[in-house]
Amino acid sequence: MRHLLDTTDLTVEEIDQIIHLAMDIIENKEKYAHVCDGKKLATLFFEPSTRTRLSFEAAMMELGGNVLGFSEASSSSASKGETVADTAKIVSCYADIIAMRHPREGAPRKAITKSDVPVINAGDGGHSHPTQTMTDLLTIYREKGRLDNLTIGLCGDLKFGRTVHSLVKAMCRYSNIKFVLISPKELAMPDYVKTHYLEENGIEYVEVEDMDDVIADLDILYMTRVQGERFASQEEYMKHRDAFILDLDKLKTAKEDLTIMHPLPRITEITLEVDDDPRAKYFEQALNGKYVRMAIILTLLKWKDEPYTTNIDESKVVSDELKCSNPHCISNFETGKHKFVLADDNETYRCIYCETKAER
């Protein structure tokens, strides 16, 4: 059956279909008020969330369905040592579709090995966040009327920011896209994103450490918070927390039709005065999340009997003594055979769960 673990699970045509379905939901809410009567969404949130969890729950309720689940790992059998796959198997006995957030990267891919219902990745560690990306795409489309011919600035924590990783993966399939990566070197975009998605797809990008040098060129400015929960120490977090702060002074040279986005929550990286600038669209972006998740739920329930396909070449997948070098990968926390795919250089392997290089 079809799942949504990453935006690369969707073709460009399917992404466009979901966006246009979301647009129709926005314009014709009553038409969709009972389409999920009798259906249940399970929200399995192993780490805290406000927008993502509540928007999933609101989405299902507005479709006429019901919601069950948990909002923290301590209230689930994970606290007793149950694996992600077993949890998904059990919950799929009670629900028609699952939305899962987990702090370990690759956890949703473990879940689909046993789940009997579609699984939606609602964020896995610093790896991927496809429904946020679909939210971002809907926001860009509503503001710009297109998903091509754009210069997109990604600013802040690009190392741990799963939202920007997912956005790059999605946007690199559209034409004439340029990325401006704005971050301190310590929080730069991971190499696998730059090589496997930007460079291999011929996407132009530059890396800078000063927002002022590039803001005038941007069509989209995507701000991110520095995520304290991803750092090994409070000292390291505080060192980078205020690396970039967007205020009205910085916006003086920006385009009049710049779209300012942020996946939220924001901490210090956007000042409150920016909220009143007409270019600030992050609260509208949060609302768009509900509509796009309504469209995703409907689409996956419709595709339930279709086979799940990914961009992973199964002929290059191995399962042996390799070990993922990512300390946050689910494969380093749960027992069982873990899989790796031979990279394009035909020499190194990437973990299929988190896409990090493997080591022996």
Q: Report the mean per-residue pLDDT as an integer.
A: 89
Order of secondary-structure elements: HEHEHEHEHEHEHEEHEHEEEEE
Radius of gyration: 20 Å
Multimerization state:
single chain
Strand content: 15-25%
Please list the strands of the largest sheet in the order they lie side by side.
Answer: 7-6-5-8-9
Uncertain segments: none
Q: Give me the number of helical elements.
A: 9
Number of strands: 14
Shape: globular
Major sheet description: 5 strands, parallel
Verbal overview:
The chain contains nine helices and 14 strands. It has helices at 12-27, 51-62, 84-91, 107-111, 130-144, 162-171, 191-199, 234-240, 282-302; strands at 40-45, 66-70, 97-102, 119-124, 150-155, 177-182, 204-208, 220-223, 259-261, 317-318, 323-324, 340-342, 349-351, 358-359. Strands 7-6-5-8-9 form a five-stranded parallel beta sheet, covered by helices on one side. A four-stranded parallel beta sheet has the order 2-1-3-4. It has a three-stranded antiparallel beta sheet with strand order 10-12-13, with no helix packed on it. Strand 12 and strand 13 (349-351) form a beta hairpin. The longest helix is centred in the last third of the chain and has 21 residues, at 282-302. The model has no long low-confidence stretch (mean pLDDT 89).
